[in-house]
Design a protein that fits this description.
The complex is a heterodimer.
Chain A lengths: L2 H12 L8 H19 L8 E4 L2 E3 L2 H8 L3 E7 L5 E7 L10 H14 L4 H9 L2 H4 L3 E2 L1 E2 L1 H13 L7
Antiparallel strand pairs in A: 1-2, 1-6, 3-4
Chain B lengths: L13 H32 L4 H10 L3 H9 L2 H79 L6 E9 L2 E8 L3 H4 L3 E5 L4 H8 L1 E4 L10 H12 L3 H4 L8 E9 L2 E10 L7 H13 L1 H14 L1 H5 L5 H11 L4
Antiparallel strand pairs in B: 1-2, 1-6, 2-3, 4-5, 5-6
Helix pairs in contact in B: 1-4, 2-3, 4-10
Classes of the chains: A alpha+beta, B alpha+beta.
């Protein structure tokens, strides 16, 4: 069982609003897990190489794994205006033992921070993270390097400009 | 005008609160008072003898006084207490019944709120998805325009053209085109406003550099030094650039005398752009200025990331949870 599998399963089990766990939301939750893990643990939680495009931080790894793994199911639904939405759910074994306490603490904090957000607020939250909002943004997001740069910038004393 | 405590113009709410409290406790008061009256009256009822009081009444000369003595007996108070309990009990029951109905109604409404929340989230997903599609379509539109621009100006696989828009002291790539697919890939999307060709064109309306820059292939060190000295690029980052351009024509996109973006033509050859080509490109930019202004306006409008980036304390906020103590 790889880390991406465990993290996706953990979100599916513990996220309180299961019907909101669309492919897009779950992907961005995994991005947040990777980013905050890079900040706190100096390494990402998964091996995903994140790309920033019109859809924000996006990769197909999450939906590909959900399609491949029989413990996940992807249910196609229609949004209010008839748009396509794919809700991901998990029916396999518990994954608590596959994650460290620190990893679970990060995932729990992400759930707590974002569970009350409507999708647009959630996207704003994702876009407000340093890899997206920093002075220079690259299409390929090297989260560990960006975490180091974020810490360096925070160490620098604030300078005033006129 | 004198201030009044009570009356129509009075500001005191003490009596209102008092009457509200009295109203709320009304039925409970009657039920409790009835019980108290029955308890007290019952303790006297055992010793009260009606026939004796009747005899006293008949023998009495002051009938009115004796009548009161006859009527005001413990049994009468027991009856009044019972009526009070019944009145208070019925009122309390009705009150609880009303509260229960209200509770059921609120629970039903709460279910509706959850369903509404679900709908709002669904609509919100639609909205974000449509914004993403709009942004993507807008980029496609601008890229198509850049393709026609590329053809009209007879540019080759050694050149590329990019449009940047400006938001909050940063430049963002709106669209890029080159006939060479290696050069058209966008690696970096957001740039600081304080260095590079874009920055000079932004500040001075144009930046034309067709002679000074050495060819990277022939002399990489001189190229790096030139780029560092002229445009402030760190030498270490130059090797990673997909296109080592040495001719630049950058023109500001101006709306009502305010620069809103920049269009940059660049070539990795040192003999592509000559005076005639420069004037052709500048004329083209001038002719299509209003188009580019619209493209830039769309870019700013549809790029959510450029608008959200301004206020970011997300990391500090998140990390503070872990400074306080690891969450279990």
């Amino acid at each position: 069982m790889n880390q991406l599998h465990s993290i996706m399963a953990y979100f599916c089990i513990h996220y309180p609003h299961k019907s909101e766990l669309s492919k897009a939301r779950l992907t961005k939750l995994v991005y947040l897990a990777d980013w905050f893990s890079a900040l706190l643990n100096k390494h990402k939680a998964t091996n995903i190489n994140w790309v920033f495009n019109h859809y924000g931080p996006y990769v197909d790894d999450v939906s590909n794994l959900a399609q491949r793994d029989e413990n996940f199911s992807i249910v196609p639904e229609k949004t209010v205006y008839g748009g396509d939405k794919y809700v991901i759910s998990y029916s396999g074994d518990d994954v608590d033992s596959a994650l460290s306490d620190q990893e679970k603490a990060i995932l729990n904090a992400i759930i707590e921070k974002t569970e009350s957000m409507y999708f647009n607020d959630f996207i704003d939250y994702v876009y407000s993270t340093y890899p997206i909002s920093s002075n220079e943004r690259y299409t390929n997001l090297d989260l560990v390097a960006l975490a180091n740069r974020y810490k360096e910038e925070k160490k620098k004393p604030a300078t005033s400009s006129s | 005008m004198g201030k009044q405590k009570f009356g129509f113009s009075g500001e005191s709410s003490v009596l209102n609160k008092l009457s509200n409290s009295l109203g709320q406790w009304w039925y409970i008061f009657f039920a409790a008072a009835g019980s108290a009256v029955i308890s007290i009256s019952a303790s006297f009822a055992g010793t009260y003898c009606f026939s004796e009081k009747w005899k006293v009444f008949k023998a009495s000369t002051d009938k009115l006084d004796s009548l009161f003595d006859l009527i005001a007996n413990p049994w009468l108070f027991i009856v009044l207490g019972s009526i009070s309990i019944l009145y208070g009990g019925k009122g309390t029951f009705t009150d609880l019944d009303n509260l229960n109905s209200k509770n059921i109604k609120l629970e039903k409404e709460n279910l509706n709120v959850n369903s509404l929340k679900k709908r709002i989230n669904s609509i919100s997903e639609d909205s974000v998805s449509l914004q993403n599609q709009l942004s993507s379509l807008h980029t496609q539109l601008v890229t198509t325009w850049l393709k026609s621009c590329f053809r009209n100006l007879n540019l080759t696989t050694n050149e590329r053209v990019t449009i940047y828009y400006h938001v909050d002291n940063h430049f963002y790539v709106l669209a890029r085109h080159s006939q060479n697919p290696v050069f058209s890939v966008i690696h970096r999307q957001k740039f600081s406003v304080n260095h590079g060709v874009i920055s000079i064109a932004w500040g001075h309306r144009e930046c034309i550099d067709i002679e000074g820059c050495p060819l990277y292939n022939k002399d990489p060190d001189s190229y790096k030094k030139y780029m560092k000295d002229t445009y402030g690029y760190p030498e270490s980052s130059i090797d990673d650039l997909a296109m080592k351009s040495c001719q630049f024509i950058a023109v500001a996109i101006v709306e009502a005398d305010n620069p809103v973006g920049v269009i940059v033509f660049e070539s990795n050859k040192n003999d592509k752009f000559k005076l005639q080509k420069i004037s052709q490109i500048k004329r083209y930019c001038s002719d299509y200025q209003s188009y580019m202004v619209n493209f830039v306006a769309g870019g700013v409008k549809y790029d959510k990331s450029a608008r959200v980036a301004a206020n970011a304390s997300t990391e500090e906020d998140f990390l503070s949870i872990f400074i306080k103590g690891v969450k279990k």
